[in-house]
Every structure is written in C-alpha cells, then in structure tokens.
Amino acid sequence: MNIKAKRHLQLILFLFGINNTSILAASAEHEHSAQVDSHGDAANDHQHEETHKHGTHENALEHEINTVVLNKAQRLLAGIEVADIYPKEFHLSYYAPAEVKANGYTSYIVSPRTESVVVSRHVILGEKVKKGQKLVTLFSHDMAQAQANYLLAKSDWERVEKLANNAISESERVAVKTKYSAAYGQLVALGLSDFAIKSLQSSASDTLGQYSLVAQQAGIVLKDEFSQGQRISAGSALMLLADETTLWVEAKLSVEAELEPKNIATALVSFKNYEYVAKVIQQTHTIDTKTRTKIIRLSVENKDDVLHAGMFVDVNFIVPSAQKAMLVPESAVMRNEEQNWVVFVEQPDASFLPTEIRLGSQINEERIVFGLPSGSRIAVKGAFFIASEFAKSGFDPHNH
Predict the structure, then answer these.
(1) Which contiguous run of DSSP H or E holds residue 108?
(2) Beta bridge partners of 220
(3) Does 209 fall in a domain?
(4) Where do the segments described as Disordered lie (predicted)?
C-alpha cells in the first residue's frame, strides 16, 4: 500500500473513532504474506519447469543411448534392408527318406505257364524293350504236345471246311471245329501269342515244344533271374518288366510327425539336382515296430528317365499352417549381451532399437518369433552390423 493510500485510510478511521494500529498491522501482514506467496509460487513454477526440462532431457538421453543411428553411407555399406513384419500363413515341411519302386499297376512278371527249360535269352537286365519284342525262348514237353494237337486239329478243320455240306453231317462238322478251337485255346493258355500260333507249320516238327515269351508292353527289364539251360517250373518269375514313365516312391515317415495325407499340399521328391512334384496315392495302416515309421506311397512322373526302381531319394511333405504367425529371416535375429534373442526395430527417427523376442520353429530360412508387435519395421539384412555398432557403444539394453 502506498503512503497516500495509508494517510487516506488513517483519516477515515480517525473520523469514525476506530483504532487504526491493528488495522494497519493486519494490512501490512496481508501484504507481506501476498508477497511471500507470490515469491513462493514463482519459485515452485521455476522448480517444476526445471524438473520437467531435466526429465525430458533424461528421456531423450535414454532414447539416444538405447538406439543406434546409422547414416546413409553406413546403411549402404552394410547392405541394411528393413521390412514391415505382419502375421502371415506359412508351410511346414516334413522330411522322409524314400525308395523308388516299380509301378505295380504298369509292370508285370514274365513267367512260363508250364514247366519249361530255357533255350535262349533275347534281352538283358536294364534293357528297354518294345511291345511285342521277343524276350526268351523256352522248351516244354507239354507245349510240344499242345502244338502237335493244334496242328492236327487245324489240318482236320481245313479239310472239313472244303467238303460240301452233304458230304459230312453237321454234328461231325461241329465236333471237328470244336476240337480245333480247343487246341488253339490250349496254346493261348500256355502263353503263346496269336502271331506265334499262326506261325506254326506242320512241317516244322523239329521245333515243336519251343516257344517264345514276348513283351506285353513297352518298358524296361528290372529283373532277370535265370540262366540258359535252367529248368523253370510253371509260374516262376523269369523277368520283371515295368513301364518307368510313372513310378512309385515309398517314403518312410516317422509316426511322431502325426502327418495325415489329406493335409499334404505338396510332396517333393529330390534326387541329386532333380526335383519332382509327386502325388500321394496310398499310406499303410500298420507301423514298423522297429523303425517306428509308416509308409506313404507317392506316384511320380519320371521326366527324362532319371529315376529307376531301387534308387534312394529324399521326400519333403509340405503342409499349410493352421494359423498365421510372425516370421522373420534368420539373419534378422541376434543375441544381446545377456544372450537373449533380439531384432532391431526401426524407429520413426530412422534409429534402430533392439527388441527382445522369443524364438519358435524354423520354417526354411525363417523363424517364427513371439513378442514382436504386428507391423514392426525391422532390419532383415545387416542386423550383424547394427549389433556391432551397439557393441562399440557399450550399449546395455537394460541400462545395468
């Protein structure tokens, strides 16, 4: 309160007879208190401002310590690439060793239908043959008798055919024809082809008993288990002939894989530098008690005739995932000083912040990770360089 105001107040108090001493003292005390309060508020405001500035500085410093900033030249030199990571579908791969087998639906066993002796062979193991090609010549007493009966029946029928209708009864004519047809059928039953039967001549008595087995289809000789002069019983396998344009592959899959054929999206058969897409056609319903494996049979088109029965190959079964997951390249994952797994997340200011994650299954050259927010922009290439920059700066992600 200024002097003029005080005097004016004292005059008023004197006119009304009021003791002005206490009033002036209270007024002075109030004024002093206001000044003190004003000074205190200013001090508090100043202290709050200083604290805020200090906290902001500490936050900025902490962010600066926890991240690494790389300039354009460093990024280019280290080959750093970043990518946005979102949950995505993926495929699981199950490996199984396998063996190539002959296609049981396009192969057959060459065998005599009567006890015979091997006279000569005309093809060898592994040779490709054409349909109708001669495979082996045999001799059989039963065949000799059947051929002789056929030649006699054929001769009788040819003679009867030339006779007039009134020269022989109808029943005799039918009997002769029936005997001829039966003799022909006997030769067919013993394995002679129509061409071989028609080639028989009554004058070739020195070749009676000899006959040849021919290829019923084009293919390759997979088995050849006989010797010249060997006596072969009826039904014994002489050769295995198979068409290898389509083959079977039998994969032995561990029962622990719990893989159902209906869930397989693709089956890849690998042999050296060749890879084939195969089709799942069957699976066994029994488990090998020794190896704890089950067999899944595949059908594969044998392009360029590379695969052959008996070869060992590799099979990978590709199965789509049941749900999406966060996948990052293996090269993006590093260990920090505490041996925890981290990836480097790019910040809005283009710096990199290490973010701890947990590793899941490996999917080809990627890893399923947990703890990484969807849409994170991480270093997918050059993470090792970023990690080395952190090591140079002595960075501890936990500020210990």
Answers:
(1) strand 107-110
(2) 128, 242
(3) yes
(4) 29-59
Which residue matches tokens 């060459």?
110
Confidence of residue 110 (pLDDT cuts 50, 70, 90): very high
Q: Residues 271, 172: one domain?
A: no
Tell me: do 145 and 229 sit in the same domain.
yes
Same domain, 276 and 169: no
Angle at 222 between CA 221 and CA 225, to 5 degrees: 90
Is the pTM here over 0.85, yes or no? no
Contacts of 75 (CB under 8 A, 6+ apart): 382
Say if residue 263 is in the same domain as residue 373.
no
Nearest to 355 by CA among 381, 330, 329, 387: 387
Nearby residues of 3 by Cβ (< 8 Å), 6 or more positions away: none
Distances (CA, A) of 48 to 37, 43, 44: 16, 9, 6
Q: Which domain holds residue 388?
A: 67-87+324-392
- Domain membership flag for residue 329: yes
Most confident among 25-34, 248-257, 309-318 (mean pLDDT): 309-318
The answer on pLDDT for 242 being more than 50 is yes
Written as one letter, the residue type at 135 is L
